[in-house]
Amino acid sequence: MRPLGQLLLLPLLLLAVGGRGAPRDTLACSQGLACRLLDTDMLCGTEPLGPGCGLVLARLQLEPALRCTGPVACLPCLEARLRLALPPGTGEPRCPASSGIPGAEDGGKGERWSPMDGAASSQPNITGLLLLSGHAYAFSRCVAVEVRVPLAPTLPGRPLGWVTFRCFEAPLGSELHVTAYTNSRSRRRLSQWQRVPDCSWPAAQAAVPQCQVPRLQVSPGPKEVVVEVQGAMAGHSYTLRLYHNQSHGAGGSGRTVTTSGPMNYSLPADEVLPCLCLQVWPETQDPPRATLCPFSNDTEAWERLWARSQLVLHTGGQALTCSLSAPCDLPAELVPCWQPEPAGPCQALPSLQQPAVGQGPQEFGGLQPHPNLCMQVWSGGQVRLTQCLRDRALPGRTDDLLLLERRERGGNASLCALEQGTCTPLSSFASAGAGRPGLLEQELRQDVAAGQCRQVWHPENGTGVMLWACPLHKYLRARWALVWMGVLLGAACLLLLLLLKKDVKGWLKSLRADYGSEGPLRGRRALLVHAAEPAAERAACALTAALHPLGLAVVAAPGGGSGVAAWGPLPWLHAQHRRALRDGDTIILLLSPAAVAAARRWDSGARAVPGAGATESGPGPRHGPGPDEVPTVAPCEVFAAALSCAVPMLAAGNGRYVVARLEALVPAVPPALRAAPAFALPSEVGGFLRALAGPGRRRGRWPEPCVAAVAEGLQRAVGE
């Protein structure tokens, strides 16, 4: 027998593949080991038992690999590498050395080891059976390998060498469970999960046909869309599929086109919808697919989809059911609404909307069918579809009134009428009538409580909001009764007017005289004197505007015009005062806070403007200041200058003076002006107008429109 050292130096790198191994399966052993494939398609669980000493598996290592039949015809697989050792606790193997396991000399079918193994087979050795299994989701495969180890002094547990099996095939990206064990009685197993590389593995991208997926390019046009398959390899078959992607299944009906190499496919624009998707893949086993859904944001595709969608209402059961059918999933919301008139608006019912789900029917539990009920489909803030129950033979009338009942804490309930987009409280709706006089809150509440109104919506839990449809024709009788009462009342009033015909004629004649084209103050003139402050100026403007329609010609001071520009304000005022006294015009002194202050200075002995009015009439001894006195006001204060003209004339009883006091600003008339008749405006407008009219119109009552117009203008001016 040759020395064992010589046997270990033999370069046994790779033994021939034997047994029933597939032609593409390979087996390699490290130096010092001899191995061969016995069976590459063995039924798992039927492996035989061997001697008790056997071999021990020390390590299992899995590596990704490719099994190729050509440069670009490879399949992904996992390579299994096993490290062998002697069982621990054995210095020398206790099992008899042999040249092989029984029946293994010829592989069970007359097959022998290769001649290069002859030297090893003539030496005593340990023979073991190594079993490998690979399990994936859809298949299992078991492989049997015979291993011979030359009998030599080896430490227990020390590695003997490596056995490499190439390889376990599996689909791209799948998981494979590889298990390795020997046929010894101990049956120590090593197992490991490993994922097969997918197309992201650089080695697979150029060698695995499944990873060579072409690209899709879409070119839309006005009448058709061109789909271009780019990157397809010539001579390889590919499948192009067009389908509608929906949540209830993307594998539905579609259109499939088979081609070999690059291609262009034309699709009519009318068939383009938002959910239209494209897929392309090579004609290989378990190929990856390139998917493209390019029309999800196409506005025209969405409009085309809504035109092909349909909403159907069903009333067969106790609750309202609707179904929305469309070629694609619709991101929409179903909203029940109430439409009393066919062409009128449809008011959404509160808290009853729900999202549209799938293509099947959807039930609105608790919503009872009624002729006025409609269903709207809302999407993107717009009403896309509407379907109503108006033409169905359902209980209820189209003129029913919809009431909303809201349950509150404590058992109280509030009712409101849903109409024209709002919910009006029943008390306000009954009093205003909302265009239907005669609807009484008490009657409606009684009918709801007594069940005379039909319950359109009731929540499943019995709480919250309820909807009632009350028959409106029941209350129309009361409305017509009120109409007849109004007609009778109008006839009685007309008869009374006929009986009082003469008095009516006199009243109309007086009214025509008061409101004729000639104003009641026609031909009268007045000089309006006021202080230079905003409140007085606004009141003077309002008073002038209100007196002008009555025929009174009013000249206001301070005023404007060519006279003021030529003479200055004080000479112009004195000229107007002289003219008013000469022609018998009325001089109106309008009292405001500044005017009252000027009058009080007059009472205290200060003269507004020295020498003013000396040509007409001098002041009395009480009011005449000395020649050395200095004026306390500026010469341009018109009202202070007017007092130097008016006070002496009032003391002498000359002229027609009227004092108008703004009662909101002036509480009383100063003593210097109490000789003239005074009126508080706007409360005493009637007496003020009679004073302006003169002795001929002092008696009687002025027409109310005239008094109201003057009072309203003054009130607005003082309020500003």
Secondary-structure map with pairings?
Elements: H1 4-8, E1 26-29, E2 34-42, E3 56-68, E4 74-85, H2 118-121, E5 125-135, E6 140-150, E7 159-169, E8 175-182, E9 189-195, H3 202-205, E10 215-220, E11 224-230, E12 237-244, E13 254-260, E14 263-268, E15 276-282, E16 290-292, H4 299-307, E17 310-314, E18 320-325, E19 333-338, E20 347-348, E21 354-355, E22 361-364, E23 373-379, E24 382-388, E25 401-407, E26 413-419, E27 422-425, H5 426-432, H6 441-450, E28 454-457, E29 465-470, H7 473-499, H8 501-514, E30 525-529, H9 534-547, E31 553-557, H10 562-567, H11 569-583, E32 586-591, H12 593-603, H13 638-652, E33 656-662, E34 678-681, H14 685-693, H15 704-719
Parallel strand pairs: 30-31, 30-32, 32-33, 33-34
Antiparallel strand pairs: 1-7, 2-6, 3-4, 4-7, 5-6, 5-8, 8-9, 10-11, 11-14, 12-13, 12-15, 15-16, 17-18, 18-22, 19-20, 19-21, 19-23, 23-24, 25-26, 25-29, 26-27, 28-29
